[in-house]
Amino acid sequence: MPVSPHTSLRRVQDRTTDVRRWLDTGDNTAVLTAYLRDEPVDHRWLTTYQRLMHDLLRAVSHACPRRVPHEAPTPSVVLRPHRR
Hints:
Radius of gyration: 23 Å
Shape: elongated
Largest sheet: none
Distance between the termini: 64 Å
Number of helices: 3
Mean pLDDT: 84
Strand content: under 5%
Low-confidence stretches: none
Structural class: mainly alpha
Oligomer: single chain
Number of strands: 0
């Protein structure tokens, strides 16, 4: 069943809020910094982070319309070198 653009964008906002609230809890922001620096992090923290990001990215992909790959138009006129 199709979902309205408003509903899709609302889901993106909700998932973004989930991530922001989670990062504001405890030392999650500090752990994120460590993770981004390739430092070891707790497995449970990493699982939660990956789930939140997956949910956010899925909401974004559902909110964005699918695009058809761009193909260069085939010229209908053959250009010949200029002769002098």
